[in-house]
Amino acid sequence: MNEELEKLRSELEEIKQQNVDLSMRITELEDERDELSENLNRIKGSKLYKMSKPVRVIRSQVKRVTQYGSVSAVNNKIKSKKKLKKRYKDLGSLSFPDEERRIKEESKEYSTKVTFSILVPLYNTPEFFLHEMIDSVISQTYKDWELCLADGSDAEHEYVGKICLEYAKGDKRIIYKKLEKNEGISGNTNECFKMATGEYIGLFDHDDILHPSVLYKYREAVDDGADYIYCDEATFVDGDIDKMITVHFKPDFAIDNLRANNYICHFSVFKRELLNETELFRTKYDGSQDHDMILRLTGLAKHVVHVPGIYYYWRAHAGSVASDINAKSYAIDAAKRAVSDHLKTNGIYNTAITSSRAFETIFRLHYEVIGEPLVSILIEDDTEECIAAINKWNTYKNIEIIKASDYSESIKELNKAAIRNYLATKAKGEYLLFINGHVNMTSPEFVKELLSLAQRKDTGAVGGMLINSSGKIEHAGVVLGIGKDRAAGLVHYGFDKKYIGYMGRLCYIQDVSAVVSDMLMVKASDFLKVQGFDSNYTIGFSDVAFCLKLRRLGLLNIFNPYAVGICDRGQILLGSEDDFYKKDLSRFLDEFESEIKSGDPYYNVNLTRDSLDYSIM
Asked: Which pLDDT belongs to residue 279?
């Protein structure tokens, strides 16, 4: 007993000393910050600094050109940002229903009653934030809701309870409970859930704002069979939803995106029945409890629906995750644990998870290759440089290389799609990796990076990132229905390889509609199921058509930015006046009319179809 007490005393003293050391370090950093701030202000006030403004402007423009690829790309980006700022009110307060629309939405009748239980864990919520949050629920045009408030605030914030009780007196749909002690985000939310009686559960932060029509839109999704629903969101500052700093237009449900990045986030609403098989929030994931929950519940859901449009407004303020994720570093570790546990639940083990260069909470997943299956590398238009690069960089040993040049007589009358099919007949591998001879691989793990994803049962084609010798992006995934011909476009084309992409999308493994054949891996068995590449496409679209046929089988096509090659030949998907291209285009538009008309599920209807840079419409 005494030994245990001594051990505890020793541990306590150690913790105390750590706290003292930490306090001293904080003081040192604050002093350094103040000194730097004084020096910076002194510099900015100097004549030399003011005189150097033209040089700094030029340097800033050069940096932008380097990042975006060209002066015209920079100008387009600037125009896009200006256009977006003008649209903030359209996406914010001006998007709220006017009297006519409100009457229409409020008066709509439904064959069955569906109640949304909105859960809000409270903790020392600022008074102004609390009022705005509750008022945004009360103003909903869909009226079958209940607001469940579990309050873990301390004695100094007693006003939280008084405000909530005052609201509850005037509206029976508002249910308030004062907790004996603060149980943290997870515990307080679980207490909210105990209060809920609705068929659908919604998760709402205590300092954010809902669009007045969000529940109306979600009820439409429920009538379409949705059991998990989410929407697009915006982050705002200064207590004004029109002062947006980030607008996130999301893709439809994409499991690989979700594993790398909790892009779903707000406003998550799900059918209560999904929780019959699992918990709501788990305290060991506090800080990223929502990522854990979303991974689990979307895995159980039969129909996940994304409602496009800004219907959730995320307040950024000091100490909030929206303001600075680094302010809550424990959330990063919790998210990594959540993703790791999710992968293990789905039979995917030994996956290392590291933060990407985009953000701390956007992850690079290092999947493990299972076994050592034979990979057949099929090289169209092979060059000595391509072969040398493979031999130099590839670390995966069980490969065979099949070169088009070895069959020059047999393929001389064939087009590119037919050549790839011919090479596949010579392959013995369980996996086929198609590479264009103009591509020089530059990442040592490129075969492993592609193979680790291609091995999954739910995977169709896997492609990597292609850049040119100037360091500009050639290929980072294909989006349907965008670009000059509204057929398919190469998003982020021409951007610098160091650019993180729209919402960090150049930094993580993700689901896409298609990848290009310049670097494409697929199971040999799936290649046969779709009968290879359609040789009726003379010069273009055969690879996109191939991927879409895999998608029709229910398989996922995946873009992996960590398998990298250099390619300088340009891309046919950017459009051409060639008669053969026009014929291929017409064929593609006819064959995949339904997919193009439905819109690319991994894009967003609010994003432009005219350019390849994820600009807002």
From this structure: 76
pLDDT at 564 over 70: yes
Q: What is the pLDDT of residues 212-266, one digit of tens each?
A: 999 999 999 999 999 999 999 999 999 999 999 999 999 999 999 999 999 999 9
- Which residue type occupies 377? I
Half-sphere exposure at residue 137, Cβ-oriented, CA atoms within 13 angstroms:
31
Same domain, 268 and 383: no
Question: In this structure, what CATH number is given to the domain that contains residue 461?
Answer: 3.90.550.10
Are the beta carbons of 563 and 465 closer than 8 angstroms? yes
- Predicted pLDDT at 24: 47
CB 441 within 8 A of CB 389: yes
How many Å apart are CA 62 and CA 50, to the nearest integer? 20
Establish if 38 belongs to a structural domain: no
Please give the radius of gyration of the chain, using alpha carbons only, rounded to the nearest integer.
27
Residue 605 forms part of a structural domain = no
Let me know the angle formed at the C-alpha of 243 by 239 and 249, rounded to the nearest 5 degrees.
115
Residues whose CB falls within 8 Å of the CB of residue 57, separated by 6 or more in sequence, listed in order: none
Query: What is the DSSP track for 161-210?
Result: HHHHHHHHHH-TTEEEEE-SS--HHHHHHHHHHHH--SSEEEE--TT-EE
3-state secondary structure 510-539: EEECECCCCEEEEEHHHHHHCCCCCCCCCC
Q: Are 360 and 326 in contact (CB under 8 A)?
A: yes
> 299 Cβ partners below 8 Å, 6+ apart?
342, 345, 346
* Nearest in space to 564 (alpha carbons), one of 443, 473, 447, 412: 443
- Tell how strand 363-366 and strand 459-467 pair up: unpaired
In 66-173, the DSSP E strands lie at 116-122, 145-151
* Residue 480 phi, psi (nearest 5): -80, 150
Is 424 in the same domain as 507?
yes
Rounded Cα distance between 65 and 78, Å, is 11
Q: From CA 145, how far away is CA 31, in angstroms rounded?
A: 51
The residue with greater pLDDT, 7 or 374, is 374
Give yes or no for a contact between 256 and 511, defined as CB atoms under 8 angstroms apart: yes
Q: Do 320 and 457 lie in a common domain?
A: no
Contact 402, 390 (CB under 8 A): no
Q: Which amino acid is at 289?
A: Q
pLDDT of residue 20: 44
- Is the pLDDT assigned to residue 23 strictly greater than 50? no
State the residue for tokens 């299972």.
Answer: 370
Cα 308-309-310 angle, rounded to 5 deg: 140
